Amino acid sequence: MSVFKTIPFFRILIPFLVGVLAAIELNTLGIDIKWFILIFIVLFLVKILVKSNLVSKFILLFIVDCFFVFFGNNLVHIQTTSENPLYYGNVLKSDSAIQFIATVNELPIEKEKTIKCNLTVLSVKKKHEHINVKGDLIVYLKKSLKNKQIKAGSTLAIKAKLIPVSEPKNPFEFNYKLYLNYKQIYHTAFLDSSNYEFVFIPNTISFIWQLGLKCKLYILNSLQHSLLNKNSYSICAALLTGYDDEIDKSVMEAFSHSGTLHVLSVSGLHTGLIFLVLSFLFDLVDRKKRFKLIKFFWITIVLWLFALITGFSAPVLRAVIMFNLLGIGKIYFRSDYRNQINILLFSAFILLSYNPYLIKDIGFLLSYFALFGILYYQPIFSKWWKPNSIVLKNIWQSITASFSATISTLPITLFAFKQFPIWFFICNIVVVPITFIVLLLAFFVVIRIPFADVSINFLIKYLIIFIDFFNSANFGFIDKIDFNLIDSICLAILIVFLSLSIRQKSYKKLIISFSLIIIWQFISLIDSYDSKNKSQLTIYHLKNASVFGLKNKEKIIFNVYDKVNYNYHIKPHLISFNYTNVEYKTFNFIKVNNFSVLILSNQKCWPKTDLEKVNSIILCNNVKLSSKDIKLFPILRMIVLDGSNNSYNIKKTEELCRKFAIKFYSTKTMGAAQIALK
């Protein structure tokens, strides 16, 4: 393929990614190096014996592919903490309270009732000795005066029971366990002030990392003690350090719906803007570009200082490495889009070699695909119109960059977020420059320059008013898009073939694109038909709450609108029904053909119905059934307990079901119950 000739690093990255993804998704065992050596010897002998240049070239490329598949596969297993013999989970059983020493490796995050801390485990106590181990975990501490003394770098001696991160309880719910597993975190623990003590162990965190954390803490303290209001502080904290836990949910939602959520964290965008500003300033001084190396040297220092100031935020580290490599490429190679894409792919290879699990990080994927789109598509769009005015030229460049990044990231954003901001290009033209100004002013606040905080309050106030205008489901954004993995793959392939057909003026690739659209739509119609015609009752698992969804061919009825839990626990499942109409209506009895369900939520007040025809019961709010009650339901086949029941009631009801040979189901242990209605 011509793409391998013009962008040859694709040829290396593809087998490498195959090896990485095979190890992560299929959990393949690490490939023994002796098998690779054996394959290499056999193929090398074949290459010597066969005189055909074509066969020799094919064998050589196959050997290279095998090597990178082997390299990527084994890299994952080397980097997987749980496979390390020194991993704390392999040293001790976590089903009882254990004693261990750990260091806080990030700034503690204050929640409503707890303080969340990321810990690196240094040693665990086994019998009468401490054994050095590896691994991270998350602890939640009840708020107290003692807990407020914990800071990044604190070392704690802890006694607690480690709890494995649980699977999602509801269909299509965000898999938090998988998310933490990709970050090499497998357990959590809940502590109060009596479960730990402070200990002093020097050099538990590297000097550079500790310096970064101190910078991060200093920035947050400086912002807190300024005149910034709540929204301004939370946004500035996110822009400078990546600490976005205090941003109001409504503000976060408005930025998301306007297509500008990417600006609310220190990221590759801000690093790129700093890179462009510095390049522009150096070009003003060095118009003939005689001092490229000096320019690269100083820009590199400034970018790494920025990374240090932000506490070595992961997105910034990625961006700094990426722009360093792009800077080298501009000095020693031609500055066309193919060489820039090659350098971009090389930087991805370097970062994935350091941590292959980055391939599952949405931020990593979006940053690389966005920059890929800008490098590939923006030169094409820029040729469509060349305004004479500098202002119009900058606006046009911003619009083309926004469209380019959106095209290349569309399969990922639709799959991950299930929504599409209609006016993203307008919002980005306004929001990106303003947030960059806010970022610079936030630096001034940190170094205590007067009136910087007042200026930020003014800008943030009107910025929020601006994005709120587009925060409307009627005209601002499209929500609840049923977009699965197959849709994402089909769209990605379609974008590739359409792009190649336009760039190469190939009718063959255009025909392939239209054929793919037809196949994709046919698959989507089948999925849509299946989801529309599905009739079922879903008993969701929500802690201390009762939420049911009754779906037929026309609509889905919820017994209550739980705004707090809706987006996280229920909305993902609702989206999978493909634009089903939604109603909210209280109900306590369901009858469909021969299937009848009674919902009991009040011990003293049962719904008036014919109990002899009830074959299923849903128990809520710790309603208790006795043997005498069971005898009132002669055809009872199943009892379901939702998340509003405590452990005692679940245990007693299970014993009762066992006694009468009735099917028992608890959403607490088994997850949401989905009952097909036929």
Describe this protein's structure.
The structure is a single chain. The protein is an alpha+beta fold. The protein contains 23 helices and 21 strands. The strands form 4 sheets. Strands 1, 2, 3, 4, 5, 6, 7, 8 and 9 form a 9-stranded mixed sheet that branches. β19 (638-641), α22 and β20 (663-666) form a beta-alpha-beta unit. The longest helix has 28 residues, at 390-417. It is globular, with a radius of gyration of 29 Å. The mean pLDDT is 83.
Beta-strand share of residues: 5-15%
Helix fraction by DSSP (H/I, runs of at least 4) = 40-55%
Q: Kindly name the structural category.
A: alpha+beta
> So how many helices?
23
Summarize model confidence as the mean pLDDT.
Answer: 83
N- and C-termini, Cα separation: 52 Å
Q: Return residue spans where pLDDT drops below 50 for at least 5 consecutive residues.
A: none
Shape: globular
* Count of extended strands: 21
Largest sheet: 9 strands, mixed
What is the C-alpha radius of gyration, as a whole number of Å?
29 Å
Q: Strands, helices and their partners?
A:
Elements: H1 2-6, H2 9-25, H3 33-49, H4 53-79, H5 88-91, E1 97-104, E2 109-110, E3 114-126, E4 129-132, E5 136-142, E6 155-161, E7 163-164, H6 176-182, E8 185-191, E9 196-199, H7 207-224, H8 230-241, H9 249-257, H10 268-285, H11 292-309, H12 314-332, H13 337-354, H14 362-382, H15 390-417, E10 420-421, H16 424-446, H17 452-469, E11 477-478, H18 485-504, H19 507-532, E12 536-539, E13 548-551, E14 555-558, H20 563-575, E15 581-584, E16 589-592, E17 595-600, E18 616-619, H21 627-630, E19 638-641, H22 647-660, E20 663-666, H23 667-670, E21 673-676
Parallel strand pairs: 5-8, 14-15, 17-18, 18-19, 19-20
Antiparallel strand pairs: 1-3, 1-6, 2-3, 3-4, 3-5, 6-9, 7-8, 10-11, 12-13, 12-21, 13-14, 16-17
